[in-house]
Specification:
By secondary structure, the protein is mostly helical. 66% of the residues lie in helices and 0% in strands. The longest helix is centred in the first third of the chain and has 29 residues. It comes from Talaromyces proteolyticus.
Length: 366
């Protein structure tokens, strides 16, 4: 009981100042502290080209997103024929979805602050329309190349088994499908176009809602999780059909497939244009839908995320024309002015004065 009371006292900060400082030192002394930053480091970072940082960030982010995903696909396909233990011990569609989701989450957390965290050429194009693609493709290419090297022995064994069973190396069930999407037998291109368009639109809508600063249900810390789970939901729902979801992921990995399995990686059933290009119009459609019907710019302005193009005067003029701002609200009241004048000359609590007199004004006005 005495220990519980002590903890409660700590929570309420009801302890001597000296003891509190000692406890803080004890709690932090084992935490690795950053070294002081020297002028040499600051000068190096200042001279470092911004475009290089962003390109490396995008390539690294796509690598982190693609690598665990296609590694999980490799584990699933390479053990698809095993009975003891069953293939589900190694992987499943559920695990593949989680692998891509976690990869996206890690990519946004690690590389997002540097490059902006697009990791998808369709998102980059959409941002340009509403507001380094090569780097993104390069990141996917390196991830696929690394998986090919790490699983090389198993892939060679899979190739031998596929040839013996009469399965083409480039097909939905062949070794090339580890790296890129291929249609199954009997699937029409129109059907696959519709599936890909819907999946990519869904993901684009999730991404656009997450980067909307007026969205009260998503905080910056939860954005990687929400976007990752959006990808995972589409993998769980439609990976058993055929989906690509990302131009950079598919094209970069398809180049690796073409290196090892030839031009058929791009020519197989004329499907590659759907996997590579549909992502762009689908994401533009999703973002356009959000901008036209779901965007609330007034909320964005009220949260301080953006400003009116014509400044405060333009915003005041619009609110007046819309009937939101009355004429009596446009001129500051006498109480407002007296409070501001008082704050300029005295050291007083500005929040208490504003609330006590029923007036709201910001510190910036003083």
């Amino acid at each position: 009981m005495s220990n519980i009371n002590e903890l409660r006292r700590l929570e309420t900060a009801d302890i001597e100042i000296g003891v509190s400082e000692a406890l803080q030192r004890h709690a932090t002394r084992h935490v690795a502290q950053h070294k002081p930053v020297s002028s040499r480091v600051l000068e190096f970072e200042r001279r470092r080209p911004r475009w290089l940082r962003e390109c490396v960030g995008e390539a690294t982010g796509v690598f982190l997103y693609v690598f665990p995903g296609i590694a999980s696909v490799a584990g699933f396909l390479l053990h698809a024929g095993t009975e003891e233990p069953p293939v589900t011990v190694f992987s499943s569609f559920f695990q593949i979805g989680f692998a891509f989701a976690l990869g996206i989450m890690f990519a946004i957390i690690i590389a997002g602050p540097t490059s902006g965290g697009h990791f998808n050429p369709a998102v980059t194009i959409s941002l340009a329309v509403w507001q380094d693609i090569l780097s993104q493709i390069f990141g996917a290419f390196m991830a696929a190349l690394l998986v090919m090297g790490m699983y090389r022995q198993q892939i060679l064994e899979f190739e031998v088994a596929a040839k013996a069973a009469g399965i083409p190396l480039v097909s939905a069930s062949g070794p090339s499908s580890i790296f890129a999407a291929y249609p199954q037998e009997g699937q029409s291109l129109g059907y696959l176009f519709f599936i890909e368009f819907f999946v990519d639109s869904f993901i684009g809508l999730v991404i656009w809602s997450c980067i909307d600063p007026a969205n009260p249900f998503v905080s910056p810390s939860t954005v990687p999780i929400v976007i990752g789970m959006g990808y995972a939901a589409m993998v769980w729902g439609f990976a058993d059909i055929t989906i690509s979801t990302n131009l950079a992921r598919d094209l970069g990995c398809r180049f690796v497939a073409a290196i090892f399995y030839g031009r058929e990686a791009f020519a197989y059933q004329s499907y590659c244009w759907i996997a590579i290009l549909v992502n762009i119009p689908a994401t533009l459609f999703a973002t356009g839908f959000y901008e036209l019907f779901l965007r609330d710019s007034v909320q964005m302005i009220s949260k301080g995320s953006v400003r009116h193009r014509d400044g405060d005067e333009g915003l005041r003029r619009y609110l007046s024309e819309a009937g939101v701002l009355k004429e009596s609200d446009q001129e500051p009241s006498a109480i407002h002015e007296s409070c501001k004048e008082c704050l300029k000359t005295k050291n007083v609590n500005w929040e208490e004065i504003g609330e006590g007199k029923g007036v709201r004004f910001s510190r910036a006005e003083v």
